[in-house]
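Lecture 7, part B: from sequences to assemblies.

Below are the input chains for today's worked example.
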Amino acid sequence: MEFESQNDLERDDFERELQQAFLRRPAPPSLKRKLMQQRSRQRTERLHLRKVVWERLAACLVLAALVGGGFQWHQREERRKGEAARQQVFTALRITNRALNQVRAQLAERDRDRQE
Amino acid sequence: MARDWQPDFEQLVDEHQSMVFSLALRMTGDRGLAEEIAQDVFLELDRHLGKIESPLHALHWLRRVAMSRSADALRRRKVRGMDLWVEMQDGYGANVEQRSSPLGSRLESLLTTLPEPQRAALVLRYQEDLTPEEIAATLEAPLATVKSNLQRGLKLLRAKAESNLKDFIRVPTPELRSS
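Predicted structure of the full complex, as structure tokens:
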């Protein structure tokens, strides 16, 4: 690296002094203790948060399942009711048809009696 | 791909707390703030531990994040209008444990008067013994900018030392250390 300097010897001395002055300082003894405490607290909070998230997710899933199941049950019930109504209509039509046939047969018999 | 090395958070703290704390201290000049920054840096390391691939990666990651967090702290302080360097010059001397020499301690104080980019480059150069290329990678800055900051910072520091430390600067280093 090239730095502007008056002469090499001075530059070396000065930079050497800088290196001496900038030696790493020992961290405060409390740093690690505080750090580990904070880490443990944050981990507990993270675990709690994760638990809450999972609980909420599970509650949402249960709710969604209930709503979905209810909706399906409602649809199935509607279909069943529709089918029952259709069967009733068919039965009514069959009865009506039979009654009409009987009336038609009676009328035909009466017409025949009159002609004789 | 399986990794041979598994990061051990506590071991990483033991190994690098001095480096992270010293970088933060020299960048901010405030012991309390430096301690806070060091804690933040290691807590962030804890969150990213799964992405750390080797001891060297951990070292580079810690250096980069320590410098970045220190710069953020300085910017926040600047926004709030606080003068860190007054605090450093007033209170720093009382707390300093291991001074190398009287000249060293004064040089360290003078460092605090340099602009932030120059201070960052000089701290990484002389505390961490990094090359300009490594400093550029750590600070995520262009190499030319780093070289210029190193050059200007050193020139400025030398000029300040010559005007403020006349008693020390011309004295040969070995005599200084013995005194």
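Note for the exam: The radius of gyration of chain B is 17 Å. Keep this in mind when comparing with the next example.
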